[in-house]
Amino acid sequence: MTLAPARSDRPRSTGWRRFAGSLAGTAGALAAVMVLASCSLLPGGQQAKPTPGIATADASIVESAPEDLREFYAQEVSWESCEGGQLCAEIKVPMDYANPSGETITISALRMPATGEKQGTLLVNPGGPGGSGYDFVLDAGATYFSDEMHSRYDILGFDPRGVKRSAPVTCLTDQERDAARAKVFELGTDAGLAAARAENQAFAAKCAEKSGEVLGFVDTTSAAKDMDILRAVSNDSKLHYLGYSYGTFLGSVYASLFPDNVGRMVLDGALDPALSNEEVTYGQAAAFEKALRTYVGSCQQGPDCPFKGSVDEAVAQIQALINDINLQPRTASDGRQVNATMFVNGIITPLYSNANWPTLTAAFSEALKGNVGPMLSLSDFGADREGNGTYGSNSALAFTAINCLDYPMVTDTAAMRADEQRLREASPTFGSFLAYGGITCIDWPYKNVRSPAPVEYSGEQPIVVVGTTGDPATPVEWATSLRKQLGNASLVTWEGEGHTAYGRSNSCVTGLVDQYFLHGTVPADNSVC
């Protein structure tokens, strides 16, 4: 699946931006984009001095849980000082919810305590699938939320099952990940497609060997059930939740499973649960093409833009550059080969926030001079590759594992070739790189456990859905669709560019969301900021 949702990582310059490189040589397919693009962070409050200790849920919370899961809801959780002034804990959950008496795993969580009179815990997910909520709170929690939000809420981030610290999906060494990103296959030929499939068979076998049985249980439904245990051990009768991008999918699944436990929930950068993997990819192809054209138009209004002529002519120049690199990969100053997929990955990264467009302009300027180093740096940044060749997370690996369980994939060769043609029409620049996603999961050791369907929500608490008109990763139409599916919900639309809105848009969005979390004031449906 080529879903491009948000994720978090340690900030490196003005904001969050992350694009994950291609996996196991899936050859021209663009890998997961996992970006939480924000460059205007909210002023943060002073952190409270954390108080380590043992926490348990009230008896009423435990009694309301399913009987066969009560031991997990009633567990004692030891919150210990960590990460230079935060509180961390390991929460035990069943590996397989169909067999709760069987093997268990632990979910790693990090809590930033409220600075004033606490009214609840705010659970956050930055996206992915594969994004670390633990890292999000650690790196941006102090500055991402307003003083009043810090005063009234504990901010709680967690790594969902399969991600980084929580029973992580493990597949490749750092050197193998480098090698996988460097491989290219001619997917338009039967021989190239067969070679890509063989590569992915080997990749899947390594994931199964190194990850173990948990690889079959990292699906979103299981992660949503983990969230209810996190709610309980936080001693909250209701779940207050902020989810970005894929985090909206996780949140909507939670709402369908636990409607009576939904508290104040904001779903920003919405994914439509009713869409198939192929429909998601098609929507993103069109949205990324639109974002590229918007970027080019903005670039041409400045003095440093390397593209002349009309927007059409500039986009054609970009396409010619990509095609040229596809025919003859470039060599970067560190000796690494830069192929077209890596180059396109670099282009995608700064499209997530218009504040990062100047970075893309500088990289294009250098690439047109023959220097692909800056674009490689953007691609590496998206793949979470450090300058020393190590990878800082398993996000791209978890992305594949989770999506292979969450979505049935089209794997028939003729159907994939027809899908490629549709993608090329939707996005002449990126479409071919988004095709053949089914190759990734065709030989996955575990079959999908979910099929796309509209979400159903019967809870009394209205949910707030936020969409952005220029969002390239989760098109604004998906927010409208999710709001309709939820029924008891309110839609807020930001007329802006980039992925997600809260924390990177304007005071209108911030005010509406904060008033909802702090005072329960539900924004008027179809509010526009």
Overall geometry: globular
- Strand line-up across the major sheet: 1-2-3-4-6-5-7-8-11-12-13
Summing up helix and strand content along with how strands pair, one would put the structural category as alpha/beta
What is the mean predicted local confidence, pLDDT?
90
Output the radius of gyration.
22 Å
Note the beta-strand portion: 5-15%
Number of helices: 18
**Unreliable stretches, pLDDT < 50, 5 or more residues?**
1-48
Descriptive overview:
The protein has an 11-stranded mixed beta sheet, with helices on both faces. It is globular. Helix 8 (246-257) links the parallel strand 7 and strand 8. The protein has helices spanning 59-63, 70-73, 133-144, 147-152, 174-182, 190-211, 220-233, 246-257, 277-299, 311-327, 340-348, 357-368, 373-382, 395-406, 413-426, 438-441, 476-486, 507-519; strands spanning 53-55, 77-82, 86-94, 104-112, 120-125, 153-158, 239-244, 262-268, 330-331, 337-338, 463-470, 489-497, 527-528. The protein is built from 18 helices and 13 strands. Residues 1-48 have low confidence and may be disordered. It starts with 52 loop residues before the first strand and ends with a strand. With 529 residues, it is an alpha/beta fold.
